[in-house]
Amino acid sequence: MPNQGVKSHCEKQNERPLERHHDTGRPSKRARRLMPMKLTAEQVEQYHREGYLFLPDYFASADMGQLLRVARDDEVLASIANDRLDREGRTSRLSLRHELPDDAYAAYTRSCAIVEPMEQLMGCEVWHYHHKMMMKEPHTGGAWEWHQDFGYWHSNFLYPDMASCLIAVDRAHKANGCLQVLKGSHRMGRLEHGRAGDQTGADPDRIAAVEDRFDRVYCEMTPGTVLFFHSNLLHRSDANQSPDSRWALICCYTSSENPPFREGTKGEFSRIERWDDERVKRSLREHETRQSDVRGN
Fold first, then answer.
1. Tally of CB atoms within 10 A around 3
2. Which fold has domain 59-295?
């Protein structure tokens, strides 16, 4: 269970008097942005029933524009990126970190706005496993086959008490290969997985039957929309056939009660230092400033 005596940045922020609109007396837009996000009982129930939860326009689109500029100009992010080929030989790029360094991507991974709803959905404290920037470029970005994240995470963890939060950094739509999910498919448990190009995909014979049983949902998302999803939810994406890129930051967590059983597994398996909105934004600004300094601008 979460540490009851330790308050997060968001909880401390919530103890301060709220800024209020001078006419309505309601909390100001800025104050609402700093308040901890509390999911409703209906949202939690929906997540457990369907295996995912959308929160539209959760982060400001202007912040996502800044994050996209930072990511596109980030030589470190590019240097650790890996290419993944689909069955047709098309390429998608993925830049993954198990650590939480002082950068904008780790700042969002630490965000109270992500960690605290994730703990509501999972029912306990969560630890950081990894985070990754997915980069699907115009006309060239490859497909991702049907898979479950726990289809390969199970090699290091005993239980599927794990989940991810996908943050749409730019717009995701059908033509540029938005995420697709099979609603409720997490309830089947883990399927067998094998190689599919450079990827790990679920058993194609079983997938053929599964697709007839569950509704397919195309997760079209505006910048700043987030999607929480269970580690056993089947998901995929098509190749990018459009002139638009699709970049997404995916933050992955495990329950604190589900540490890796295999010694040497990479990740930050301890309580996450949670950052409020102001600190996340400051980290984003500082990241961009460092890049400008390196370029001499």
1. 10
2. Jelly Rolls (2.60.120)
**In this predicted structure, what is the pLDDT of residue 178?**
96
Q: How far is CA 30 from the centre of its chain?
A: 24
Closest CA to 199 of 292, 83, 63: 83
Query: How far is the C-alpha of 36 from the C-alpha of 187, rounded, in Å?
Result: 29
The Cα–Cα gap between 27 and 288 comes to 30
How does DSSP assign the chain, residue by residue?
---TT---HHHHHHTSPPPB-TTT-SBPHHHHHHSPP---HHHHHHHHHHSEEEETT-S-HHHHHHHHHHHHT-HHHHHTEEEEE-TTS-EEEEEEESS--SSHHHHHHHBHHHHHHHHHHHTS-EEEEEEEEEEE-TTTB--EEEE-THHHHTTT-SS--EEEEEEESS-B-GGGT-EEEETTGGGG-PPPEEEETTEEEE-HHHHHHHHHHS-EEE--B-TT-EEEEETT--EEE----SSS-EEEEEEEEEETT---SSTT--SB-S----B-HHHHHHHHHHHHHHHHHHHT-
Return the pLDDT at 12.
46
Domain ranges of the chain: 59-295
pLDDT digits (tens, 9 = 90+) for 27-74: 454 544 445 579 999 999 999 999 999 999 999 999 999 999 999 999
Distance CA 7, CA 290 (A): 31
DSSP string across 103-141: SHHHHHHHBHHHHHHHHHHHTS-EEEEEEEEEEE-TTTB
